[in-house]
Amino acid sequence: MWNGGRLRKAVEIYDALESRGVKCSFFIMGANDEEKKKYSRERIIYNSWLTYGEILGHISQTKVILDLVRGSFSGNTLRSFEATIYNKRLLTNSMWC
After folding, report:
1. Cα–Cα distance between 80 and 94 in angstroms, integer?
2. Labelling 21: which of 12, 15, 44, 69 has CA 20 to 30 A away?
3. What is the pairing mode between strands 44-46 and 89-92?
4. pTM over 0.70
């Protein structure tokens, strides 16, 4: 189960983007069967392990990286570095970025 409502927030963002015609794909790890059923969406892929090379392949084809951190987290994340290195926009709830 995702802590702190991050799964719900990710799905809200997905729905908001899709409703505005933005095509997006989300890869979400750690969701249980109940959550996957409740938050099932066409281009949300749950619990599918990707190699780091595969992740970088997806990053190369995207314009924006979503990074939802746990509530009290402070500091940089791998996603924030990737956004900088690969010149992508970063959508995050981190207060640090």
Report:
1. 10
2. 69
3. unpaired
4. yes
Residue whose pair of structure tokens reads 């015609």 in the numeric block: 21
Amino acid, single-letter form, for residue 74: S
User: Count of alpha carbons within 13 Å of 10, Cβ hemisphere only?
Assistant: 29
69 close to 47: Cβ distance less than 8 angstroms: no
Residues contacting residue 77 through CB under 8 Å, at least 6 positions apart: 67, 69, 92, 94
Q: Which amino acid is at 15?
A: D
DSSP symbol at 63 = S
For residue range 33-92, what is the model confidence (pLDDT) as tens digits? 999 999 999 999 999 999 999 999 999 999 999 999 887 777 789 999 999 999 999 999
Tokens standing for residue 67 = 């990074």
